[in-house]
């Protein structure tokens, strides 16, 4: 087995795959709205369902927003490989002379750009709904910036494994949610700590380490899982 | 060591589907300039065989060699030289023919020569290049997929039912292209339920579940 070599033609395949996926998402923009609406609606329902009291909402905010983001990210995973699997594009990706892991990473990046980034951008608004103070909102965005790529990367492994199954949705959540838990714990605790005026470096370092780990390993794992699913 | 075959070599391949044996101990070599036509009833394992040859599926037993090396050890070299078109056309309905072919071209890397517009012209889609594939007919979508053949410099083409939903003109155009490919030392594996008349190359036929090659009339 040779290491993936970054030749110009591999890079151009990598970039054109990202471009193509962004173009496809743009032509299907209604589908992208679903997880985002879910994210906004879940968070806005909390004040209605629990209590509009400022103190209570403020303490719940980090957890509520992060849980909603996590579930929204999971909802959006469905679009990651499905259409490529159904129309045979995935086979062509597997038969490409370029490194499969790199091409899978390209798909994950474009998926994150259209699902993760909007979540990060919407978060301050939802923070305001939940009476998050300024420093809390900034930390929330920081944790989302580090955390949502992890959700896409780890989710891609789960999605790749359950692709060939008829009803993979249930299995996907069972596989993926436990792996999301560390991200949730460190992110919510960072936002909490920043509201209390405490140091948040520790949590951010941990999220950063998780991100580096998943960027290096998840594409390899997902590419191998896809190979099995395509068979 | 046996001397390496200059093309594709299938060594005692067996394949099962569920608990049913599709074929056992299939053995043949495909050298430059040769065509292998795989025939057989529905469900006899034609597609399974083609997927095994392309490295997309694992055989139960046996191995596939490309120029004497197992394909899983020579992946990047083999995939450089392979063009596999399956039942599913790998065509995105939301994209135009040009966008689809651009993607196919960059996935296969440097292994391309003619321009994309030229290829679309060859398959008779000139004037349709900017229309989303969703608005094209089934035959036209198929032609978009087959335009990849004009872009490809791969030595080994594995085509699963390429004639599906094509009209007579397109079939004869393809056969001309196959002849050119074979005369240039290419290899071709093809399945079809329609009669195939390729005016070049050394023709060989495999009728599954028989594993013996039949000489062609």
Query: Shape of chain B, please?
Result: globular
Tally of individual domains of chain A: 1
Oligomer: heterodimer
CATH superfamily placement of the largest domain in chain B? P-loop containing nucleotide triphosphate hydrolases
- What is the C-alpha radius of gyration of chain B, as a whole number of Å? 17 Å
By secondary-structure content and strand pairing, the structural class of chain B works out as alpha/beta
Q: Classify the helix fraction of chain B into a percent range.
A: 25-40%
The largest pleated sheet of chain A is described as: none
Order of helices and strands of chain B: EEEHEEHEHHHEHEEE
CATH topology of the largest domain in chain B: Rossmann fold
**Of all protein chain pairs, which has the greatest interface, and how many residues does each chain bring to it?**
A-B, 28 and 33 residues
Please give the radius of gyration of chain A in angstroms: 18 Å
Low-confidence stretches of chain A: none
Main β sheet profile of chain B: 6 strands, mixed
CATH architecture name of the largest domain in chain B: 3-Layer(aba) Sandwich
DSSP summary, beta strand count of chain A: 0
Mean pLDDT score of chain B: 84
Task: Quickly list its features.
heterodimer; A: 231 residues; elongated; B: 217 residues; alpha/beta; 2 domains; four-stranded antiparallel β-sheet; 6 helices; 10 strands; globular
Question: How would you characterize the overall build of this protein?
Answer:
The complex is a heterodimer of chains A (231) and B (217). Chain A has 231 residues and is an all-alpha fold. Chain A has one domain. Chain A has helices at 8-27, 29-49, 54-76, 82-87, 89-94, 100-129, 134-162, 168-195, 201-230. Chain A is elongated. Chain B has 2 domains: 1-81 and 157-217, 3-Layer(aba) Sandwich (Rossmann fold), CATH 3.40.50.300; 87-154, no CATH class. A 6-stranded mixed beta sheet of chain B has the order 6-7-8-3-9-10, sandwiched between helices. In chain B, strands 2-1-4-5 form a 4-stranded antiparallel beta sheet, covered by helices on one side. Chain B has 6 helices and 10 strands; from the N terminus they run βββαββαβαααβαβββ. Chain B has helices spanning 46-53, 75-80, 97-107, 116-122, 138-151, 168-183; strands at residues 8-17, 20-30, 34-39, 61-66, 69-70, 82-85, 156-160, 187-191, 202-207, 213-215. The model of chain B has no long low-confidence stretch (mean pLDDT 84). Chain B is α/β, with parallel strands linked by helices and 217 residues long. In chain B, a hairpin with a 2-residue loop joins strand 4 (61-66) and strand 5 (69-70). The interface between A and B is medium-sized, with 28 and 33 residues.
């Amino acid at each position: 087995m040779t290491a993936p070599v970054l030749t110009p033609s591999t890079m151009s395949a990598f970039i054109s795959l990202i471009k193509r996926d962004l173009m496809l998402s743009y032509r299907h923009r209604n589908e992208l709205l679903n997880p985002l609406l879910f994210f906004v609606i879940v968070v806005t329902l909390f004040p209605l369902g629990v209590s509009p009291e400022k103190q209570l909402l403020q303490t719940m905010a980090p957890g509520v927003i992060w849980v909603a983001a996590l579930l929204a990210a999971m909802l959006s995973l469905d679009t990651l490989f499905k259409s490529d699997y159904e129309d045979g594009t995935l086979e062509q990706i597997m038969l490409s002379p370029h490194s499969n892991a790199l091409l899978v990473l390209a798909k994950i990046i474009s998926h994150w750009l259209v699902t993760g980034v909007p979540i990060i951008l919407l978060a301050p608004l939802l923070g305001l709904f939940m009476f998050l103070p300024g420093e809390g909102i900034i930390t929330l965005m920081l944790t989302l910036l580090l955390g949502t790529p992890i959700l896409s990367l780890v989710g891609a492994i789960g999605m790749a494994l359950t692709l060939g199954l008829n009803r993979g949705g249930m299995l996907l959540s069972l596989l993926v949610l436990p792996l999301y838990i560390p991200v949730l714990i460190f992110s919510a605790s960072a936002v909490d700590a920043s509201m209390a005026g405490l140091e948040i470096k520790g949590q951010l370092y941990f999220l950063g380490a998780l991100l580096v780990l998943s960027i290096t390993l998840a594409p390899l794992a997902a590419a191998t899982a896809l190979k099995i699913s395509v068979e | 060591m046996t001397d390496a075959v200059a093309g594709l070599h299938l060594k005692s391949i067996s394949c099962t589907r569920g608990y049913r044996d599709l074929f056992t101990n299939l053995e043949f070599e495909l050298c430059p300039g040769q065509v292998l036509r795989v025939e057989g009833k529905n469900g006899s394992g034609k597609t399974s065989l083609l997927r095994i040859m392309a490295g997309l599926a694992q055989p139960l037993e046996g191995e596939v060699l490309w120029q004497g090396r197992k394909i899983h050890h020579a992946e990047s070299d083999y995939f450089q030289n392979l063009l596999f078109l399956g039942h599913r056309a790998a065509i995105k309905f939301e994209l135009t023919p040009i966008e689809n072919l651009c993607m196919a071209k960059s996935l296969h890397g440097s292994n391309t020569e003619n321009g994309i517009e030229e290829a679309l012209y060859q398959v008779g889609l000139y004037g349709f290049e900017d229309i989303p594939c969703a608005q094209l007919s089934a035959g036209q979508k198929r032609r978009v997929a087959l335009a990849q053949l004009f872009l490809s410099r791969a030595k080994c083409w594995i085509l699963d039912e390429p004639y599906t939903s094509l009209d007579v003109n397109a079939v004869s155009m393809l056969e001309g292209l196959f002849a050119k490919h074979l005369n240039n030392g290419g290899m071709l594996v093809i399945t079809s339920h329609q009669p195939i008349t390729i005016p070049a190359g050394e023709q060989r036929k495999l009728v599954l579940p028989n594993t013996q090659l039949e000489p062609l009339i």
